[in-house]
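Support request from a user on the community tier.

User writes: "When I paste my structure tokens into the form, the page sometimes reloads and wipes my input. The last time it worked, I copied everything first. Here is what I submitted, just in case something in the input itself triggers the reload:"
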């Protein structure tokens, strides 16, 4: 009697079926894994904002006023002082486990001609050449491209005053005064007649701490960091969420800035120049580097009317942006962290910003940016 023996193993068809099933399972699971990872990254971003907001409150407890956006030790005069450009993120370091870094910055380097609180704030210097980890959002890959890069911004308001003028200091659009939001220009003690105007207090937030934004996020610029603007060519693909476009006339009609976009990129048909300095210098308090305003809504384009050279131009529209799906995180003046949708009400964007210096014309979003615009109890989660 003959016995038949069959070798154990898989046929080619069986292997192909198994591979196909594995491929289907991976295809089904991968989006869920990616969503879980992004949820974790978003949670870390929220935690960073929470810690920054609490540090600002601890600063206020110690100093009876909130931090400025930019200030420091004096106007630029032959390299003396940091030119009133020191970022408010520097000043909260002692209140967010950054005391050692603050001590190095506060001491300066007298032997090498660098005064206390550092040199011109836009320049490189060892004690501030590395941004703390709490300044980097894991959903923002640009925050890891350079040691000084950062993902978080300070709110400078929600009406025309928040668009700035004259180095974003004492003069705003057609008006003397500071920005309409939480963070203004602190000026130096040597400029006594202007001293302290950029520091808000609890009493100055008349719109209510739960209705007023302090901090949010913005993607680090993907455009090259150069002293002069980058000329846009038809083949360029600059992500509009991380780039600032030169767009004349936005102070007359902020809605013009929306024409800077073509799909997910800067529109070469309407924009001739862009700049990529934003988010790359955490220690420089200039608004184009460390601030945002509440005119155009979250994840909308950023535009500057003036000459983009050196990155210091104004007026500017600088909305928060992120890689989170559908919106951005923001820390309120009461210390809470909220998520703001891309579709939040922005009112009438055709109204001239240069004439809008009181209550914001830019809807719920604009109201959230102002500290004393009279727009109370408009925010609902």
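"...and here is what came back when it finally went through:"
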């Amino acid at each position: 009697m003959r016995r038949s023996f069959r070798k154990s193993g898989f046929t080619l068809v069986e292997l192909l079926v198994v591979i196909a099933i594995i491929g289907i399972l991976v295809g089904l699971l991968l989006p869920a894994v990616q969503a879980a990872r992004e949820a974790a990254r978003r949670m870390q971003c929220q935690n960073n904002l929470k810690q920054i907001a609490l540090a600002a409150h601890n600063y206020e407890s110690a100093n009876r006023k909130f931090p400025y956006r930019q200030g420091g030790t004096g106007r630029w005069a032959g390299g003396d002082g940091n030119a009133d450009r020191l970022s408010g993120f520097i000043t909260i370091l002692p209140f967010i486990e950054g005391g050692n870094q603050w001590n190095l910055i506060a001491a300066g380097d007298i032997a090498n001609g660098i005064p206390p609180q550092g040199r011109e704030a836009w320049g490189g210097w060892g004690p501030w050449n590395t941004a703390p980890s709490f300044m980097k959002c894991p959903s923002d890959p640009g925050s890891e491209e350079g040691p000084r890069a950062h993902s978080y911004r300070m709110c400078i308001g929600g009406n025309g005053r928040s668009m700035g003028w004259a180095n974003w200091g004492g003069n705003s659009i057609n008006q003397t005064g500071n920005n309409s939001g939480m963070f203004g220009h602190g000026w130096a003690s040597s400029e006594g007649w202007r001293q302290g105007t950029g520091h808000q207090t609890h009493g100055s937030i008349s719109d209510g701490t739960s209705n007023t934004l302090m901090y949010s996020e913005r993607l680090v610029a993907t455009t090259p960091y150069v002293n002069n603007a980058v000329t846009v060519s038809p083949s360029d693909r600059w992500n509009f969420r991380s780039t600032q476009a030169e767009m004349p006339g936005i102070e007359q009609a902020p809605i013009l800035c929306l024409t800077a976009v073509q799909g997910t990129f800067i529109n070469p048909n309407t924009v001739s120049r862009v700049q990529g300095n934003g988010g790359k210098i955490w220690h420089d308090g200039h608004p184009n580097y460390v601030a945002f305003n509440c005119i155009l809504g979250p994840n909308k384009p950023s535009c500057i009317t003036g000459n983009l050279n050196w990155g210091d131009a104004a007026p500017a529209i600088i909305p928060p942006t992120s890689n989170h799906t559908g919106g951005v995180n923001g820390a309120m003046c009461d210390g809470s962290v909220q998520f703001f949708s891309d579709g939040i009400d922005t009112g009438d964007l055709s109204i001239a910003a240069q004439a809008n210096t009181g209550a914001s014309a830019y809807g719920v979003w604009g109201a959230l940016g102002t500290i004393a615009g009279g727009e109370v109890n408009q925010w609902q989660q």
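Agent notes: The reload is a front-end session timeout and is unrelated to the input. Residues 189-196 have pLDDT under 50 and may be disordered. The helical segments are 12-63, 88-91, 99-107, 287-290, 363-369. Escalated to web team.
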